[in-house]
Structures are given as C-alpha cells and as structure tokens.
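ugh ok so i messed up the first submission bc i forgot one of the chains. this is the corrected input, ALL of the components this time, i swear. 227 residues overall. if the numbers dont match what u have on ur side tell me asap before i send this to the collaborators (the ones from the other lab, u know who)
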Amino acid sequence: GNSVTQMEGPVTLSEEAFLTINCTYTATGYPSLFWYVQYPGEGLQLLLKATKADDKGSNKGFEATYRKETTSFHLEKGSVQVSDSAVYFCALSDRGGSYIPTFGRGTSLIVHP
Amino acid sequence: KAGVTQTPRYLIKTRGQQVTLSCSPISGHRSVSWYQQTPGQGLQFLFEYFSETQRNKGNFPGRFSGRQFSNSRSEMNVSTLELGDSALYLCASRLTGAEGDTQYFGPGTRLTVL
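and heres the new structure output, hopefully the right one now
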C-alpha cells in the first residue's frame, strides 16, 4: 500500500535560518504529492503540490521537488519566519485510485525570534 | 468562494452520549471526506461521501457513521462515545476529475469526551 514517512519533530530554528523537512513515500502508481500546513487551532491548508516527476511546487517561499528516483518530496525554505511555526504534513494522492490521500505523521516547526 | 465550514467548532460530551458534526463543502465540491486527528494516531481517514453515497471507508467501528445530503453538506455521527473519541474531527471537500487530487480542509470540530 501507499505510505509517507517524514522526519520527526519538533524542528527548532532561529528566524532567517534555512529549513528542510524530509519526506519520502511509497506508492504503487504515479501519485500527486502535497505539503499541507496546520497552524495552531486550525485545519490543514494546502501549501504546495506537484503532480509529476521533476515538478517543483512552490508557495510563500516554500519549495519542494517531486523526485521519482529517490521517492522524495522534501520541503525547503531559505529563510523562515516566526509566523511559519506550525505543523507540516507531507501527503500523497493516488490519481489512479480512490484519491484518498495518505498523510505522514506531521513535523512540528518552531521558529524563535 | 467560501471555504469549508464546520459546526460546531467545540463540543464537550460525556461517555455514552452521541454527537453529530456538520460540514458544508466549498460550493461545487461534491466529495466530502472526514478525518480524525489525534496526537497519538495522527490523521486517520474515516469515510468519503460523493453524491449522497459513501464511496470509501476507513478502519473505524460502526459507531462512526455519516451521511451526505443533496446539497453536498455532510454530517458525521458518533454514537456511544468513548474517552478515546476525543479528537479534532476534520472535514475536507474536493472536486472530481483532473483537479480531484487536492483536499480542502475545514477548521475542524474539537470533541472532548469526559
């Protein structure tokens, strides 16, 4: 079956530091890949997505590249802000199947001023 | 467009009671899914409804049920509440077709069972 593995948190950074959150996946088909973000007390928001190999998703300074050869979709940001503090979820959706996404366990990011 | 809305936002119930949660999807979205989020288990898929029919189901006991109305609004019911049902319940809607791979989430209903 499908699965998503992401690095455990919390990840603690100082403001303006470089961020990487690792995500690897296992899927039988050609899934779409996502990063969702959850701010305290809120639901999940789509941060970015990529639908095929070598695609790069980007939004709000965050980027992730769909790497089929390494089955990875690592999230990066060059300079984090305190307002980026949240929980980040990597997910995949099997476009040839039910479309029900498989989520990773989430990685908490804490950014200090 | 208005986003996914969920009511109520917070609920406190006691063991043995039942509860109904409501979700209104984004206009034009016919698929509605429900998830349970807990610190221990993370995000777990409950079920998905499309055109008033349950299309997919996760691994939850029969105490968890749902339905969808003709306007795509959905309700989720949990009967005979247990302490372990305390969680954030998230509803998500999506389009069908080529853009159907993206879920749009509501703010959630925080259920506390005492």
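quick check: The two ends of chain A are 41 Å apart (CA to CA). that seems consistent at least. Residues 21 and 75 of chain A are 5 Å apart (CA to CA).
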